[in-house]
Amino acid sequence: MSDLDKNSNFNPDDDPNGKILFQESTNDSDTKLTMPDSTNASSSNSNKIEIFLKAVGNAPILKRKKFLLDRSKNVKFIIEWLKKYMKLETKDHIFLYVNQEFAPSPDADIGTIYDCFKTGNSVIFYYCITPAWG
């Protein structure tokens, strides 16, 4: 039994230090991102981007699909977070694709991917457990 199974209070949105890593985007219109702390909304809004996670093949579907993420995070962060969220073992693989086109490098910054490949106000990441596209 993994440590995640033992801890019934596990919140996959939080890291062990209590910081929010992924924040659910509550906006369906994609015109404005809502922030939990309205006093810092204008200053931190430029540091957060909206990502949309879609399952492919037999990958488990997430309850929430839209998230806000710091621009400075990298693709490896999303992969590791998905593994933890889906309670996969470290040996299991998650394949991540941008816009059904390519698999980004694990060290690629989310902000750079967003700037180059955004659709509307978000970037779409497709995830799967087995390779899907080239």
From TrEMBL:
<dbReference type="GO" id="GO:0000421">
    <property type="term" value="C:autophagosome membrane"/>
</dbReference>
<keyword id="KW-1017">Isopeptide bond</keyword>
<dbReference type="GO" id="GO:0034045">
    <property type="term" value="C:phagophore assembly site membrane"/>
</dbReference>
<dbReference type="GO" id="GO:0034274">
    <property type="term" value="C:Atg12-Atg5-Atg16 complex"/>
</dbReference>
<comment type="similarity">
    <text>Belongs to the ATG12 family.</text>
</comment>
<dbReference type="GO" id="GO:0061723">
    <property type="term" value="P:glycophagy"/>
</dbReference>
<protein>
    <recommendedName>
        <fullName>Ubiquitin-like protein ATG12</fullName>
    </recommendedName>
</protein>
<dbReference type="GO" id="GO:0019776">
    <property type="term" value="F:Atg8-family ligase activity"/>
</dbReference>
<comment type="subunit">
    <text>Forms a conjugate with ATG5.</text>
</comment>
<dbReference type="GO" id="GO:0097352">
    <property type="term" value="P:autophagosome maturation"/>
</dbReference>
<dbReference type="Pfam" id="PF04110">
    <property type="entry name" value="APG12"/>
</dbReference>
<dbReference type="InterPro" id="IPR029071">
    <property type="entry name" value="Ubiquitin-like_domsf"/>
</dbReference>
<comment type="function">
    <text>Ubiquitin-like protein involved in autophagic vesicle formation.</text>
</comment>
<dbReference type="InterPro" id="IPR007242">
    <property type="entry name" value="Atg12"/>
</dbReference>
<keyword id="KW-0072">Autophagy</keyword>
<dbReference type="GO" id="GO:0000422">
    <property type="term" value="P:autophagy of mitochondrion"/>
</dbReference>
<feature type="region of interest" description="Disordered">
    <location>
        <begin position="1"/>
        <end position="44"/>
    </location>
</feature>
<dbReference type="GO" id="GO:0034727">
    <property type="term" value="P:piecemeal microautophagy of the nucleus"/>
</dbReference>
<dbReference type="GO" id="GO:0000045">
    <property type="term" value="P:autophagosome assembly"/>
</dbReference>
<keyword id="KW-0833">Ubl conjugation pathway</keyword>
